[in-house]
Each structure stands twice: as C-alpha cells, then as structure tokens.
Amino acid sequence: MNADQQKVIQYLSEAHAHEQSLTRVLQSQIAMTPRGSYRTILETHLDETRRHADRVERRLRTLGQGGNAITAVVGVVQSVVGQGVAIAKTPLDLVRGSGGEEKVLKNAKDACASEALEIATYTAIERLAEQVGDDETAKLAASIRADEERMLERVLKEIPKLTTAVVRADIRGNSSYDVTTTGAADAVREAGNIAKQTTRKAVSTAKRTSRQARKVPGVAQAEGQIKGAVASEGDLPIARYDELTADEITSKLTALSQIDLAKVDSYERKNQNRSTITGRITSLRGNEPWAGYDELTAADVIAALDAADDDRVQEVRNYERAHKNRVGVMKATDRELASA
Ligand SMILES: [Fe+2]
Known about the structure:
Layout: H1 3-31, H2 37-62, H3 67-71, H4 74-88, H5 90-96, H6 100-131, H7 135-171, H8 183-196, H9 200-214, H10 219-230, H11 246-252, H12 258-270, H13 275-284, H14 298-305, H15 310-322, H16 327-338
Helix pairs in contact: 1-2, 1-4, 1-6, 2-7, 6-7, 8-9, 8-10, 10-12, 11-13, 12-13, 14-16, 15-16
C-alpha cells in the first residue's frame, strides 16, 4: 500500500471511530431527552450516524482495511466516549432533582460542536482524497459532509427553543421537564408493553428490548429509579423488604445489580427513608465496568476478561469485589493479572 492510500485510510478510520462513539453518545442523550422536536432530531441523527459508520466502514473494507484500522484510533474513541459516559450519568440526577432543561440544552450545544468537528473531518477527507485521485472516497466524504451540515443546522435551530425552556424552568421556576417522558422511560414502557403480549416470541422480544435499552449507560439506573418509585414491596429484589431491619437490608445490597439498587433506593426514599440504607446504596452505585455487566453470568464475565486489557481487568476486580464478589470472577481476574 502506498503512502497516499495509508493517509486516506487513517482519516477514514478516525471518522469511523468518531461516528461509532457518537452513536453511543446519542443513545444516552435520547435516554434523557423528553419527547418533542429535539428528541425526534436526535433519533434521526442516531440513524444517520449509524449509516455513516456503515458507509465509512464499507469504504475501508474496499480499501483493504477491515477490522484493523477501525480499532486503531483509540484516542479519538476514548475522548468522545468519555463525553458519552459523562452524559450518561445524567438521567439519575434528573430523577433526583431539577435542571433537566439545562442539561438538554448543554447536550444540544455539545452536539453542535461534535457536528462541526465531523464537518471539518469530512472536508479534510474530501480534499485529501481528491488530491490523491481517490474519487470514490471524495464522493463519499462530500455526501456525508452534506448530511452533517443539514444536521448542524437543524440542531442550531432548536437552541432558542431549548433556551426558552431553561428560562421558564430555572428563572421562572416553571419546570416542564418530566423524566417519565424521556427516552429512558419510553424504553422501559416499550419493553413493558411488548411483554403484555402473550406469545412466547413477544416475551423474548420484550426481554431483548429491555436488555438492549439497558446497554445504554444510565438507562438501567433510570429504569430502576422509575420502577422503584411506583413499586410495591412484592416487586423489590429483596424478599419481605418491609419486615427487615436496616442492617438486614444493607447486608443484602451488594448482590444487587445497578438497576435493582436504583429500584430499592427509590422505594426506600419514598417510604421509610432510612439513611443507613440510602447511604450504603449511594456507595454501591457507580459505573459498571461496562454497560450490561450486572446482567452477565460469572461465565460471561470470565469469557470477556480474555479480551480485556489490564486496566479493564482491574476495574472488573474492584467492582466485583464491592458487589457480587463471585469466587470464579475474582479468581479469573487474579489469573489474568498474574499472566500480564
Ligand atoms: Fe455523521
């Protein structure tokens, strides 16, 4: 491969990494955005971003770079994913307090910055590809760039409206933000609705939908928080909850997933509101080593450790020790770290 082509592949790989991490960021933004025109834009943007990632990936394949180049741009992925994680933490704050409008506006401003970066990226790719005579890539870049420009324009148009909502809420004290109309709540509802259908297939689809929704960081916690607020004792993951002492309950908390912790937290706050319990839950709440971790069996986790780097293994070890502390998982992390 010549140097020209290498450069094109490098730029396309960077663009691909950006599109992929934007997919995750958009998912978590949708989870905290109430229904309305801005959320519709985010949903369109998510579809479009997935299509962009596919188109860039196909071009990379044609150029002879499938998997390798795609994972090569670790720095880009991590910085944008870092942003995604910060955003993903938000649904919980929303359930607990106010400021939803402000956060949605902030996300929209970030989205503009992210679009501008993509426009610049594809502009550079187009010019580079033209100069090295790669017409196919130049055409692809121009077409995606036009999508990004349209998207930036649409998001910009929403900013005044979103700002008005902040003024109404934070200055006039008239919050319209309602967590039950956000994407997270809709995902929960959608899963619930499908589950009501009777065929076995529908039930398994519902489970999958719910699991899929939970793969978005923050959604699981928001889901638990919403469920707990309306839960009766029988729905809780700890049996005979109301009869147990605070000590008995706190001793059972480490076995719970983040979603169940959120559920118990919400239930406890609404009822007896014992600070020993809510305090312990606060200390146990946090990011799973990766979204969906809590729902994995020990065997799944052990299998995933094979492909994990040392930092990730250490993260699993710390989280696992503080939570379920499964012997098999702990031993596997020892083995992985010892063989490093
Ligand atoms: Fe894009």
